């Protein structure tokens, strides 16, 4: 069978992310580095994927989605391959282009994939990762992005499909760009995002915090931040801080019964940088952490910060509870629907 993973047609409503691209473009590496803490060098030994691999990423209450890693050499447009079913349930389609290789073929494949997918489901977010940019100079990167952007959009205009919107990201597994890009892709799939952003804005304005991020600890994806612009260095510092906290907790912390990472209610860290900035990390939910940057003088009023944090945490948990309730009622509804289908006139169907 083409579909190698169990239960590919599960009816559970979860936004699905598809990872597509030519062979060796880096799809499996991206997935391993972002979600499995694999070190980038180890990806050199990854074997080629030859079946569709579906993985549920439900390590965080908010980041709850599936990734389908498609083998590069497979022909999605083979009539026996039900691409309609796959695209119908897709939230985001990430197309990976190897920037160190000739990308003419990748672009025509991108065009084909996007146009087919759009016909089935116009609500998909199309995300193009211009990948492996670690080997390129800054000028070269921008030049490549401009060229790929132009060619891909020209192809869409030629097909009278300019209404399809493609987003582009420069990525590499050797730095934080892949986490940043994934964060943006995931954020677009989180319906509560405006609420979370609002909560963060209120939180930081009350106690003069300069920047705050809400992180999914396991993947280091930030699922929301306040409305001030994000700079790469700040984001990298947050990722490093999470690594430090988790690594120290792995060595000295107490592992929970369920395995996983030693991260709990008590998890928090303060790092003072030598430019009078303080970084403050605190647990918000089982999977989420707040990481914020503030001036030393603002940090003196720690009691006030902690009080506001307490309110912020409560609000986040309430947002989360609403989501749980919605999911539960959806599940109930679909169960009822299914049981009604099974007994069309009151008598159970006898299996043939
Ligand atoms: N320089 C560089 N190499 C990368 C990067 N990402 C992946 N690679 C390398 O690219 C090669 C192919 O990566 P894979 O993840 O196996 O590619 P794939 O798209 O899953 O390939 P298939 O399974 O054949 O479809 C590996 O040797 C990786 O180490 C990157 O960001 N920079």
Automatic annotation (TrEMBL):
Q: Does the keyword Nucleotide-binding apply?
A: yes
Q: Which GO terms describe its biological process?
A: cellular response to amino acid starvation; cellular response to amino acid stimulus; negative regulation of autophagy; positive regulation of TORC1 signaling
- The lineage's top-level taxon is Eukaryota
**InterPro entries to which the protein is assigned, alphabetical:** Gtr1_RagA, P-loop_NTPase, RagC/D
The subcellular localization recorded is: Cytoplasm; Lysosome; Lysosome membrane; Nucleus
Indicate the family of this protein: Belongs to the GTR/RAG GTP-binding protein family.
A GO molecular-function descriptor: GTPase activity
A GO cellular component annotated for this chain's UniProt record is:
Gtr1-Gtr2 GTPase complex
What is the protein name given in its UniProt record?
Ras-related GTP-binding protein
Q: Which gene encodes it?
A: RRAGD
| Catalyzed chemical reaction(s) | GTP + H2O = GDP + phosphate + H(+)
Pfam families referenced in this protein's UniProt entry, alphabetically = Gtr1_RagA
């Amino acid at each position: 069978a083409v579909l190698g993973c169990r239960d590919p047609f599960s009816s559970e409503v979860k936004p699905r992310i598809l990872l597509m691209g030519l062979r060796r473009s880096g799809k499996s590496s991206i997935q391993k580095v972002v979600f499995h803490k694999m070190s980038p060098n180890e990806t050199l030994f990854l074997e080629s994927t030859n079946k569709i691999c579906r993985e549920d990423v439900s390590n965080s209450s908010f980041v709850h989605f599936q990734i389908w890693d498609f083998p590069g050499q497979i022909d999605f447009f083979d009539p026996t391959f039900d691409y309609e079913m796959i695209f119908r349930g897709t939230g985001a389609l990430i197309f990976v282009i190897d920037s160190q290789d000739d990308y003419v073929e990748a672009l025509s494949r991108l065009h084909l994939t996007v146009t087919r997918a759009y016909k089935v489901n116009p609500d998909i977010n199309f995300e193009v990762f211009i990948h492996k940019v670690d080997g390129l100079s800054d000028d070269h990167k921008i030049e490549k992005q401009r060229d790929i952007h132009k060619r891909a959009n020209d192809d869409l205009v030629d097909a009278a499909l300019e209404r399809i919107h493609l987003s582009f990201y420069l990525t590499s597994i050797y730095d934080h760009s892949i986490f940043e890009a994934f964060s943006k892709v995931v954020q677009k799939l989180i319906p509560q995002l405006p609420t979370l952003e609002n909560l963060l804005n209120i939180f930081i304005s009350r106690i003069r915090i300069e920047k705050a991020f809400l992180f999914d600890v396991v993947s280091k994806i930030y699922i929301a931040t306040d409305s001030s612009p994000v700079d790469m260095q700040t984001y990298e510092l947050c990722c490093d801080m999470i690594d430090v906290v988790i690594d120290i907790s792995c060595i000295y912390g107490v592992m929970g019964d369920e395995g996983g990472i030693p991260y709990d209610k008590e998890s928090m860290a303060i790092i003072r940088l030598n430019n009078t900035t303080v970084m403050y990390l605190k647990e918000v939910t089982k999977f989420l952490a707040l990481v914020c940057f503030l001036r030393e003088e603002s940090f003196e009023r720690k009691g006030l910060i902690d009080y506001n944090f307490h309110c912020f945490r409560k609000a986040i948990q309430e947002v989360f509870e609403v989501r749980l309730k919605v999911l539960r009622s959806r599940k109930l509804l679909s169960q009822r629907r299914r049981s009604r289908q099974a007994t069309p006139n009151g008598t159970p169907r006898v299996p043939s």
